[in-house]
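Researcher: Here's a chain I'd like modeled. Treat it as a single chain, no partners, no ligands.
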Amino acid sequence: MILVSNPSTPSRKTIVLAISSLRIGGAEQFVITLAKSFKHLGHNVHILLLHPEIELPIPEDIPVHVFPYDTYRKIPRFMRKKLIAKALDNFILKHIGTPDLVLSNLKSIDQFLAYSQLAAVYLVVHNTLSKLHSLSSRSLKQLKEIYLAKPCIGVSHGVTLDLPILLERPLDITTIYDPVDIEKAQRLADEFVPPYQNYLVNVGTFKMAKRHDVLIEAYVKSKLDCPLVLVGDGVERTVCERMVNKLDIADRVHFIGMTDNPYPYIKYATAMVISSDFEGLNIAMLEALALNTPVISTACPSGPPEVLPDHNLVAVGDTGALAQKMQQATNDPAAFTMALDDKFYPDYAAMRYLALLEHTACTAD
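Model: Modeled as a single isolated chain. Structure tokens:
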């Protein structure tokens, strides 16, 4: 376990974590977790947003700056990116100062910071973009303009391998795994006890990539009597609710919706089940491991196969195999339990990001 007590910081750095908003999501939680760790290590850290949408709790000692993005919406699209990039640079210099490191998160802000003139700007890629975006020539051109312009960080090896293939050329990309806020997960997991027993849980946004339909179908095939608890919300939720009603299993499948504290649902579950077609990494999976909850998953690109042993994995879309794995995990949860690797601890990730500054300095020399 990586812990840093009374950290000694020979050189206090100014770090900017940029993202469109802080709505509930994996990349957004990543920004909060990493910001807290940089602060713990003694650095000057700031969060930069394009929109004043904040659904996640932010420590009081971490300043948040909202760029006036809406004032630039009337600018023609072909001019907008470079003008906003320049305005973002000026905004950072005015309100934060000269940063030593800028970490941009998600395409919605990457498209602007790709044109930044600030030093040490990195684009953190949180998903397998080849799966996330249609591969029309226009969209591929846009992705090339963004992700070939700056060095990139993949949050898993799968993401790191996917991007050069998608962009059809080598590029400067490094893997640094998403960290999980272990202290937060363990603290909040004891806030309440869910009103279910011996249940399976899935935590995630209801969208096509997560394939809740596969999960529900596998659950039916498993013929298990234990409850299935689904935590999250999204565009596919209504479809899944109709599916559950049609299959006449509404008494056993529970839709919790979005919640500020999913951790008790994770901690007290018999096992977490992931049914995705693709992932960046899946923070909920790491949180489950931090809470000693067994995890079974599809071997989707990317993330789960890099974290879980083969014994915990099934082929993507194979509802029969997933059903069988659910039965096994319910009968013998200990067989699917594993410890969280040190590389997912926040301070470890923060120190990996700080090491990028040495690379930048060497390149400049």
